[in-house]
Design a protein that fits this description.
By secondary structure, this protein is of the alpha/beta class. The strands form three sheets. Strands 1, 2, 3, 4, 13, 14, 15, 16 and 17 form a nine-stranded mixed β-sheet that branches. Strands 5-6-7-10-12-11 form a six-stranded mixed β-sheet. Strands 8-9 form a two-stranded antiparallel ribbon. Helices cover 28% and strands 25% of the residues.
């Protein structure tokens, strides 16, 4: 599995128009113009791949203090904090995180709520855990202004992690994160409902991707035209601390999953964040929707224990016989828990180590009948 994983690193940083031209000439999936025979030959080289998506990474002060202790007094080291979920994340062909907070300057200061500034070493910890791409569109994206946004994306670049949902240039804002797995070109897009009232930077209204339905579908179609076989969309939405998806989530999920072009779905998977608590998974118009993963890294006080719980989604995509389309062949969830310790660690919650957490997450995830649609608990 690891050999396969290393062979399919994330690719492409080109704009959508350039990607389209490249795919027209000779796609990196191996497809080229020439009819059914060529398409069939290309499809023969394709195989199933897994996508793992996890919840919000929100380093509160207690998390930052733990990372400083793990670094032995020299900066911050987040690798041990994530070590408990690495067995789930690292084997995935594509692993997606949600980086909720912006990064502060290398020497700090580092702050928590309400205006976050996280250590830039978070990015290295995410990469060491196995993450390939992170959504960066959230209500906290502009907590550090445009400088904080830029520091965050620069740090993710240095770590070798793709990112989507915020941008340093207009050209960057027009392209999704481009990845490759199983012979498929995968596009990752991300959007947020807002930025906590912080205005978009002057002259840079492209800096954060806002959740406007027509824009989401237009971007998904553009990604598809540019060669994406699978389109993944991360949405920062919903009502904080509410276990059930709200009316806006339900309505928007129906609208986005119904969008199609030429009889083909524009979006293959919706991944929700922001709510702090795990929400349901549901198949809507034949497309899987994760309304809310809950938090992955947080450290809430005991009264808000639910904010330390979340799910981890794992979807296996397989090629259709026509050689062009992909479908979700297997849908799974796993329970996760921010163990406040001490020491603070992110772990997988099971019936053996955190049975109450596992049961609460399971109940939330299955609350809209996903089990009948084939969702199972992963191992």
């Amino acid at each position: 599995m690891r050999g396969i994983r290393r062979a399919r690193r994330a690719v492409s940083g080109i704009a959508l128009a350039a990607a389209l031209a490249s795919c027209t000439a000779q796609s990196s999936t191996g497809r080229a113009p020439g009819g059914a025979a060529e398409a069939g030959a290309a499809a023969a080289g394709r195989g199933a791949f897994t996508v793992v998506a996890t919840g919000d990474v929100i380093p509160y002060p207690s998390v930052i203090e733990q990372a400083a202790a793990d670094a032995g007094g020299d900066g911050h080291d987040f690798r041990r904090i994530f070590a408990g979920v690495k067995p789930v994340v690292a084997p995935a062909d594509l692993a997606i995180c949600h980086m909720e907070t912006p990064y502060g300057p290398p020497g700090g200061p580092f702050t928590g709520y309400p205006m976050f500034a996280s250590p830039p070493q978070v990015a290295a910890g995410l990469r060491a855990t196995g993450y390939d791409s992170c959504s960066t569109a959230s209500n906290h994206t502009l907590d550090g202004g445009f400088d904080g946004l830029r520091r965050t994306l620069d740090a993710l670049d240095r770590a070798g992690i793709r990112h989507t949902g915020s941008a340093r240039t207009a050209a960057e804002a027009r392209r999704p994160a481009r990845l490759r797995a199983g012979g498929a070109e995968v596009a990752h897009l991300a959007y947020t409902y807002g930025t906590n009232g912080v205005p978009l930077p002057d002259g840079r209204n492209w800096a954060v991707s806002l959740l406007e339905p027509d824009r989401v579908t237009a971007d998904a179609r553009a990604a598809r035209r540019a060669g994406a076989d699978v389109v993944l969309v991360s949405l920062h939405w919903g009502t904080e601390w509410q276990q059930e998806p709200d009316g806006d989530q339900l309505s928007l999920a129906r609208r986005l999953t119904a969008s199609e072009t030429g009889g083909r779905k524009d979006i293959d998977l919706l991944i929700g964040t922001h709510n702090h608590v795990p929400q349901a998974y549901e198949k809507v118009n034949g497309t899987w929707v994760v309304y809310g993963l809950g938090d992955q890294v947080a450290s809430f006080v005991p009264e808000k224990y639910r904010g330390n719980e979340g799910s981890m989604a794992r979807f296996t995509f397989a090629p259709e016989p026509d050689g062009e389309r992909w479908r979700v062949e297997k849908a799974e969830f796993l329970a996760g828990h921010s163990d406040t310790g001490p020491p603070f660690r992110v772990v997988r919650a099971t019936a053996q180590n955190f049975p109450e957490v596992r049961d609460r997450v399971r109940k939330a995830v299955l609350s809209r009948g996903a089990e009948q649609d084939g969702l199972t608990e992963g191992r």
